[in-house]
Design brief:
Distance between the termini: 62 Å
Largest sheet: 5 strands, mixed
Low-confidence stretches: 14-33, 99-104
Strand content: 15-25%
Shape: globular
Number of strands: 9
Strand order of the largest sheet: 1-2-3-5-4
Order of helices and strands: HEEEEHEHEEHEEH
Number of helices: 5
Helix content: 25-40%
């Protein structure tokens, strides 16, 4: 039977678009009907040393569904003289959100990616010992695979892990934590908001901390967060969230180093057996 090249044949088993619309409506209703503990952290999964094509890499996933993959490359010679530079890139995968990327908003989305890359650099630069790399460039690229909320905070943690996995000298790991405040009066700040919570929030905040040094590397955000006392409460809550995430990130980095040492030992043993 000849093929009809004038039309695209769809899959034999598919779902109507109304199914996804119903799911989105259920998410909206569920987010408003089931409030959670604002001080509770979502489950965090982190793994370093995944990509063989990069000198360092890391993957971070939050319980809200956010998934970020980062790759880092060590010092490369720069053409211009001066201290070391950190180059950051932030990109969203076409399938990162629930809806497709709209063509009319492509320029706005690129601008949002540039702003996220600048925020990522601002959060990471205080953690990297750039003075040890004169006339050199360090590069880190973050890819948002799925946006379930708190994406920039997850990217900060993943990028710091990737830089450390690449062997870059750092003062400490930068840990990111996001917060938002619902629009309801007298509402309290909420740790690691999901994407529907961020969309409806009256104020948002992303905090980056160097836990071992107890130094804040970046505070990003804005909105109607209330009086200064409420913003101070948000900072205290974010600092506590960063400290609670730090052991998970540190352990993932140690496991990556152990896997690398075991692989190197196995390779050396195989080479010795072959030569013998």
């Amino acid at each position: 039977m000849p093929l009809d090249h004038r039309r695209l044949r769809g899959p034999e088993e598919s779902q109507p678009p109304a199914l996804w619309a119903a799911t989105a409506a259920e998410d909206e209703e569920g987010a408003g009907a089931a409030p959670r503990d604002p001080c509770a952290l979502r489950p965090l999964f982190a793994r370093a040393g995944l990509l063989s094509q990069a000198q360092g890499s890391a993957y971070v996933e939050l319980g809200s569904g956010t998934k970020v993959l980062c790759a880092a490359w060590g010092p490369r010679e720069a053409a211009e003289p001066g201290p070391g530079r950190l180059l950051c890139e932030f990109r969203r995968a076409p399938f990162a959100g629930r809806g497709a990327r709209g063509r009319p908003g492509a320029a706005a989305e690129r601008e949002a990616e540039r702003e996220a890359a600048a925020a990522l650099r601002e959060a990471l630069e205080p953690a990297v010992r750039l003075g040890r790399y004169p006339r050199a460039r360090l590069a880190v690229s973050a890819l948002l695979l799925q946006d379930g909320g708190s994406a920039l905070a997850a990217a900060v943690s993943a990028a710091a892990l990737a830089l450390a996995d690449a062997g870059v000298e750092m003062y400490d790991l930068a840990v990111g934590c996001a917060l938002c405040r619902p629009p309801a009066p007298a509402a309290s700040w909420m740790l690691q908001p999901a994407e529907p919570e961020e969309r409806r929030a009256a104020a948002r905040l992303t905090l980056a901390l160097l836990p071992a040094l107890n130094q804040v590397s970046a505070v990003l955000g804005g909105g109607r967060g209330g009086p200064p006392e409420d913003w101070a409460q948000a900072l205290r809550l974010g600092l506590d969230g960063c400290h609670r995430q730090y052991p998970v990130l540190r352990q993932s980095l140690l496991r990556a180093a152990q896997r690398r040492d075991a692989a190197a030992a196995a390779t050396a043993a195989a080479a010795a057996a072959t030569s013998a």
